[in-house]
Amino acid sequence: MRIALLTEGGYPYPSGDGWVWCDRLVRGLADQELDVYARTRAAGRPPHRLPLPGQVRRVAELPLDGPPPAGPGPRGRAARRRFRDAYRELAGALADAGNGTPHPDADGGSAAESTTAGSATGSGAGGAVLRDPVKDRFADGLYALADLAREYGGLGAAPLGQSAMRALEDACRAPGAARPVAAPRPRDLLAAAEFLERALRPLSAPWYGADALGGADLCHAASGGPAALPGVLAARWCGTPLLVTEYAVRLREHYLRGDGGRPAPAVRALSGAFHRLLAGEVYRHADALTAGNAHVRRWQEHCGADRARITTVHPGMNAAALTAVGEASEAAAPDPDDTTLVWVGRIGPAKDLVALLHAFAEIRGALPAARLRIIADGPADPGYLAQCRALAAQLFPDEAADTVTAGESPVAFEEVGSPYVPTPADAYAAGGVVVLSSAVEGFPGTLVEAMFCGRPTVSTDVGAVREVIGGTGLVVPARNPHALAEACGALLRDPVRRSLLGAAARARALELFTVERNVAAFRALYLDLVAHRPARPAAVPFTHPAEAHVPGHWTAPAPTGPGWAASATVTTAAITATDPGTPAPAALPAAPVPTASARPLPAPTAPAPADRRPVGPGGVGTVGGFGLVGDTGARGVVGGVRPDAR
Amino acid sequence: MTQTRSGRPGGAPEAGAGAGRLRGPVDPVLALIHRHYDLCARAVDPLEIAAGLEAHGITDRIAARFRHRDVFTLAEELYARVPRDHAPDCPERDGTGVCPEQPMGRRAVALHLLPGVVCGAGVAVSRLTPAGVAPVTGGVALAAVALAARTAARSGPLRASGARGSTLWTCWLLAFALYGPYALQALLGDGSARPRGLLDPVSAAGFLARALALLPAAWCARRFARGARGRLADSHGLAGFRAGVRPLLVAALGLFTVALLALVGAAYALLGHRVDGVDLVGLTGAAALGVLLFTAQLLAVHGFAPAAAWGLGTVCAAQAAGLAAAACAGATSPLRALVTVGGPGVVQAAVCGAGALALALYALPALGRAAAHGGDRPAAPPPYDAAYAAALFGGPPSHTPTAPAR
């Protein structure tokens, strides 16, 4: 298989968020061909690429910043007019996006919409029937610009030209524009135009030929939003299936980090609208979506992604170094005297170490022998570290067993890489219970590592903690030192329970969070996507029998049976309908199918609440379970896991 | 994220508190609004509030205590209830690239003075050496001055990414200023003409003035760029910006022209005391060349390098055409009459003057575009912009919901 990996701001350079995961995936797919299409920062990125394994055939880069690409852009009066009109549509959509329906339609609308959008994308055409006029205008403008860029070999500096700026100004000043953008200064317009120019650069990239994305078997976007834009265009022009993986919601990242500098409200409104509308467009056109955890999945659903197409694929961890610790702890007998708590992570305010220290003070009241080791893994926030040290010194004065030995504080601040804790595995091995006290958390990587080491854990109920921990550790509310103290104390007093929970945690981690698991999940998704891809027009005559061009599947029997089975017919019809000139099959319903989705997958009739959906890479079954209809539990079994099995 | 006294992130020690802990009949969302007032007032989008709330640790379960299905609907309520405050309270951060309005350091000033010094030395050397080698010393001095000017323009407000050919055209223009009049005379059949290099007071004065004018040129360019940035921030629209920038450009070009004329006059007075009549045409040509080069550089600085190169190239072609016309001119050629009336510098004066005028006319609308004044801002912050996040989401809650802090 030839897989095009689309990245933004990270891989193949060791920067950004997702490069570690991308690197593991690429290394795991040793038997495939990979092309990497990267949007990279020209300024501020690491000077050297990661060493790329042999399966990476090609790396194409497009700068995210710097001057606009050299190129003549649209030439001639007609082309310039087309550009202006398309840009006006796009700008109008962005300026109006803050009004009317304040958010992309939530679950209520997405089911009806997915039916229509699904059938349209299934047939490889981009003209999905959209209900929201703003989304409609955005898509129209975007694709018109893309077509123009393809025709003229790029947009060049046209998005910074006078006509584009004027279109942007008119859109902002038009009645009905959202309030933050209503009175833009030239500076804001300029910043917005520069933002849009950078965001639209994938349109001008020479990536859509048969030797590039057009020839790939599928596109895998390593994050949503701008990274997936080339994939959307490839799907539109070449019919390449698109898989979008999000471990962090790109849209949310945009809101939290901004896109450089501190722009004025008008610029933030326009860029936010662009990211939001683009996210919706990407979700609509992606043939499969994977979410790193339930939180990401919720954002995706909120932004208009079809539930039936989302699979949860947890990030895989490199467990080789940690498994030895886990094996050792499993082999050893429970140690009743091990009353050391370990905290591992990057020290910062979000980790709420203050609560941990207060909780530990309470634990010490009941268990005077308890120790706490706070081990920094990664750069610490120096101010917060100093504050925590001061608090620890205040709460826990140095103590000694008798009057002749030197005193020592029960709370030790250490860091990975020091002589006592050379590696992260040593950090987890250092204590009997691993504790996580975060107030805010995304995917708790340290928790997973602790699970690999067979350590029982006590964690606060934040982010994806519940999902990760399952029943293999104790979960307490965030910002509740008393609850944290009680849970830790209970575990410290009960060595048998500790070892049982540790073993369970280790088993769960090995089942769900290994790299192999992650890569296997993606491999299955790839196979599934490629299997559903419409056959390409044959270059050699007679490679396909004539019956292959007849509407409806020529080997399958005529559709009979319950209503949901009609979806299979629709799927095959959608496949053959890409051949130009083929009449629309009679089996294709004119009206949207009320219950069954037109996707290759029969949608569950009653989708389970997000919390109760299969959380493991059992999503393999979600997409691949062609014959299993609508039963969440059944799909979990097909995936080989019952992740919520305790 | 800023720390409050309790050391909890985001200054929300009771963010997890449910409605049950609040006393009185106050609706619980009001407390949330109070706590996250800045975030809500500054948001341009409910999703921005949702992202900010999540960054503060508010999850769906906490949202349920506010009688909302999830954080998104809670954020929508907050977005609807808090009046927008879109005052640009975050100062715009400019790009990391070299801002033209940065004051020039001592080193930059010295670099900009260097061509003048080199040129002065060249003139002195030309006068000290025998007259026969004057063309050679002049050429060497010219090359040295061009090199020094190029170095100077790399660092200051005149820094630009030149288009292809612009260096070549500039060299041709300078060489023509030095040898052009002689070549014209020689081609027209004037046997008495000798190449005098920098011994010719008009050429020497022109060179010295242009070399010394580098500093005023940098100053004018910086003044223009700074003014345009100011207009960018306080104009009401693109049309207003265009109208505001035009006088700035005219002022910049005018100031430079006046400064250059004064320098030419002074240099001529200094060097030309042995000449009886003042060669007004030649001096005008020298000044016109300076204005032409300045206008072209100004265009190149603001992203119109190809247009500037085209302009310079056209002027060079016109000069070459003048030479060609002189080579095949008959006795009654208008060129011959022109040279007889105006002296050998007439071609340069006419061509450079016309070129400078044309480029200035081109620059008036071109530099009135907002896109000409964009700095190169970073496309995205390195990994995590803590200060930005703090400004957006952190900070202690404002004390009165109606008047946000900062």
Automatic annotation (TrEMBL), chain A:
Residues 1-99, 188-307 form the DUF3492 domain. It comes from the Bacteria. SUPFAM superfamilies: UDP-Glycosyltransferase/glycogen phosphorylase. Pfam families: DUF3492, Glyco_trans_1_4. Residues 107-120, 578-600 have a biased composition (Low complexity). Gene3D superfamilies: Glycogen Phosphorylase B. Residues 60-79, 94-130, 578-646 are annotated as: Disordered. Signal peptide: none annotated. Residues 616-630 have a biased composition (Gly residues). This is D-inositol 3-phosphate glycosyltransferase. It comes from Streptantibioticus silvisoli. The lineage of its organism: Bacteria, Bacillati, Actinomycetota, Actinomycetes, Kitasatosporales.
UniProtKB/TrEMBL annotation, chain B:
The chain crosses the membrane at residues 108-126, 132-153, 165-182, 202-221, 248-271, 283-301, 308-333, 345-364. Keywords: Membrane, Transmembrane, Transmembrane helix. Residues 1-20 are annotated as: Disordered. Residues 11-20 have a biased composition (Low complexity). This is Integral membrane protein. It comes from Streptantibioticus silvisoli. The lineage of its organism: Bacteria, Bacillati, Actinomycetota, Actinomycetes, Kitasatosporales.
